[in-house]
Amino acid sequence: MNGVLVDDEHIQEEAFRSVLASIGVVLTADDFTKYFIGKTDAKGIYDYFAVNKITDDQLVILGLKHDAYKDLITGSIKGYAGVNEFIDRALERGLEIAIVTSTARDEAESNLSSLQLLNYFNKIVTGDDVTNGKPDPEGYLKGASLVGVKPAECIVIEDAPSGLAAAKAAGMFSVGVPNTHPAEMLTDASRIVNELSANLVDELID
């Protein structure tokens, strides 16, 4: 969802940066990309704190980040080009669609609702629904189960290396979109495209 449908990674970064600054920690852009994009907030915080030997309460930090994100996202969320056309064509062609995201459920549903996309996705796997986040394939395998499709018959759309690694581990065809990472970092993608479109759906399934 984030980085594919919803253009909000810069807001995620700002939320994390402001909360970490409150405990005297400076989050760099490179570290945000390394530890947080394509991963659950909990996994990102755990790894980031471990590497940087930060001992503050992780649950408290996660709660503060969640609140900061909700404040920042209000009225400023937008989607990526081609998203609506891609979804409409997928449904026209009779495809089952689902969201598999590392984001918390309330954030995911709020974002999709703001973009008027929530009604398209009644099958959603969030970071709250998995024990192991991306690059583990658990989320994508749950998504396949929800829509009743074999993993080998799924197409995953991803912007992050961890998500593409998860799709590969799940045995799924994947399309990398370089919205948050350069194309050269999306090495696990079966195919790379610049943006989503209605024509892409036809190309992928015909």
Task: Give the spatial strand order of the biggest sheet.
Answer: 3-4-5
The helix count comes to 9
CATH-wise, what's the superfamily of the largest domain? Answer: HAD superfamily/HAD-like
At the first level of CATH, the class of the largest domain is Alpha Beta
Average pLDDT rating? 93
Number of strands: 5
Fraction of residues in helices?
Answer: 40-55%
Order of secondary-structure elements: HHHHHEHEHEHEEH
What does this structure look like?
This protein is mainly α. It has two domains: 9-73, DNA polymerase, domain 1 (Orthogonal Bundle); 83-205, Rossmann fold, CATH 3.40.50.1000. It has helices at 9-21, 29-35, 41-52, 58-73, 83-92, 105-114, 138-147, 161-169, 198-205; strands at residues 99-100, 124-125, 155-158, 173-176, 191-192. The strands form two sheets. Strands 3-4-5 form a three-stranded parallel beta sheet, covered by helices on one side. Strands 1-2 form a two-stranded parallel ribbon.
Please render the helix and strand layout as text.
Elements: H1 9-21, H2 29-35, H3 41-52, H4 58-73, H5 83-92, E1 99-100, H6 105-114, E2 124-125, H7 138-147, E3 155-158, H8 161-169, E4 173-176, E5 191-192, H9 198-205
Parallel strand pairs: 1-2, 3-4, 4-5
Helix pairs in contact: 1-4, 3-4, 5-9
Short recap of the structure:
This protein has 206 residues and is mainly α. The protein is built from 9 helices and 5 strands; from the N terminus they run αααααβαβαβαββα.
